[in-house]
Amino acid sequence: MSPETGIEGGTVVTDVRESSVTGHWRVFGVFVVGTLAFSWGLWTLLLFAVVPSSATVPLIMLGGFGPFVGALLALRLTGRSVRTWLRSNLHYRIPVRWYVLAVLLPPLLIVVSSVVYVTAFGGTYALDELVPVWTFGLGLVLTFFLGGGQEELGWRGFAQPALQDGVSALGASLLVGVVWFVWHVPLFFVPGSSQAGVPMLPYAAGVLATAVVLGWLYNATGSLLVPWLYHASVNPAATYFLAGVEVLRTPAGYGTYAVLVGLVAVALVVHYGSTDLAARARVRLADLT
């Protein structure tokens, strides 16, 4: 797009949708403020026990839509079309192998990291704790819509391309990853949340590494559906940590998983480069709206 300017009352008016040296930072800033305000506003009620414990799950799930709310707010305030943005992001005619990879890579990483953990730390397998395979499909569907997958409407669907209007794909992935982790921080102190009891530093490392993998999937396909599926697969995949799910909540257990995902992220950067993090040009918000 090219800048559109005009004169109104002697003042030069510039179309806020256009890219500039700092435009992507303003858009990203609006997204971050909207996301944190919505989610943290709800989760603060849990932190200070303002509501009964029975409200924990509903408020956590509702707060999970914060990234989507932040994206909608930023789109509206910058005069962009929400419909065009969604339609550009949710195209599905891509090779089936990407969908298969998005669904199966998380459980593969979990299983491999559990084997590494048992081998490196002298752990034992707890195969009797494994849940039936069919529950993975159910968990995938639930997580896709309510349990975390929907966050991708904001993280990769909006924040990633907004930053990629001005910075490299790797830089955008890491910045989104930092905000993604910070966004989760209140949940570490909410009893009953998925993050309660999880070691924070290994979790942070895992989120940053996962953000790079998701950035690659998004840029490689140009479709939000692929990273959305990957994110939805991560939570139910955790139940297949062969040394037991509770071990995955220890520094060594989660740390092993985070290191493995980190190695995958490094391999992707080495292979594709930091600029686009894919074999095609990185997705920019200007291309979606």
Automatic annotation (TrEMBL):
- What residues does the CAAX prenyl protease 2/Lysostaphin resistance protein A-like domain cover? 137-235
Record-level Gene Ontology MF annotations: endopeptidase activity; metallopeptidase activity
Looking up InterPro entries in the UniProt record yields: MmRce1-like (IPR042150), Rce1/LyrA-like_dom (IPR003675)
Put simply, this protein is called CPBP family intramembrane metalloprotease
Which superkingdom does the taxonomy of this entry point to?
Answer: Archaea
Please give the Pfam families that the UniProt record associates with this protein. Rce1-like
Q: Which residues cross the membrane?
A: 27-51, 57-77, 98-118, 130-148, 169-189, 201-218, 225-243, 255-274
Q: Which UniProt keywords are listed?
A: Hydrolase, Membrane, Metalloprotease, Protease, Transmembrane, Transmembrane helix
GO BP term (any one): CAAX-box protein maturation
Q: Does the keyword Protease apply?
A: yes
PANTHER family on file: PROTEASE (PTHR35797:SF1), PROTEASE-RELATED (PTHR35797)
